[in-house]
Design brief:
By secondary structure, the chain is α/β, with parallel strands linked by helices. The protein is built from eight helices and seven strands. The longest helix is centred in the N-terminal third of the chain and has 24 residues. It is globular, with a radius of gyration of 18 Å. 34% of the residues are buried.
């Protein structure tokens, strides 16, 4: 009986931490701390968080210019840089200098010359309009206080016809429900394209409408 009470107490404490983090993330940016980067870079995380499956859902192709918002030390961006070769380029935008230092060091060790690490805030303008073919976020949207502004800037930074991909994975405390993601993306001007995976590992893809293509089909 004592063990059951201890377990219930631990679960309640964990739930309290998760709820507190979700409340706090609506008021300030709460990215994964640099000192916890080891949790993001190991074989177990690759398997659990579906690194290859996520990249397959995003559908990167050679020659594309790609932005990852919140790449951390590069669990996804390093293999993404290889996928867009030859002729492609990837950019990682992160608010933490420490994460970017690790990302750049990993890219250098891997001999990748098509990866650029950029320090900046996702909810403020960082890139000229039409800079990218694809922008993606993985367990990052919930960490951004002004999610609406972040997706508006993604919309601007994408070329017409470009793709936004957002992946949410449980038990991330900042997990965003599918309906909420679609609501914010719709308000930013995106068109829903496709959904992949079960609720605990969900990828939503959106497109920025291309006026010229729309006219040709009209």
């Amino acid at each position: 009986m004592r063990a059951v009470k201890i377990l219930l107490g631990a679960l309640l404490a964990l739930l309290g931490v998760i709820l507190f983090l979700r409340w706090l993330s609506g008021r300030r940016s709460l990215p994964c701390p640099t000192w916890l980067s080891g949790l993001l870079e190991n074989p177990w995380t690759d398997n659990f968080a579906g690194t290859e499956a996520t990249l397959e859902r995003i559908g990167l192709r050679p020659g594309q210019r790609v932005l990852e918002v919140g790449p951390g030390p590069g669990r996804l961006l390093i293999p993404a840089a290889r996928r867009v070769q030859p002729g492609g380029e990837v950019v990682g935008l992160d608010i933490q200098p420490g994460m970017l230092s690790m990302l750049q060091a990993r890219a250098d060790r891997a001999g990748l010359t098509n990866l650029t690490a950029v320090l900046g805030d996702a909810s403020r303008p960082n890139f000229p309009p039409g800079s990218f073919d694809v922008i993606y976020m993985v367990t990052v949207l919930g960490e951004i206080p002004d999610k609406e502004a972040a997706l508006r800037h993604c919309y601007s930074a994408l070329r017409p016809g470009g793709q936004l991909s957002i992946t949410e994975i449980l038990p991330d405390p900042h997990y965003q429900l599918t309906g909420r993601v679609r609501q914010i993306a719709d308000a930013a001007g995106f068109s829903f394209e496709a959904s992949y995976g079960p609720l605990h590992f969900r990828t939503l893809n959106f497109t920025k409408p291309d006026p010229i293509e729309s006219q040709s089909h009209g």
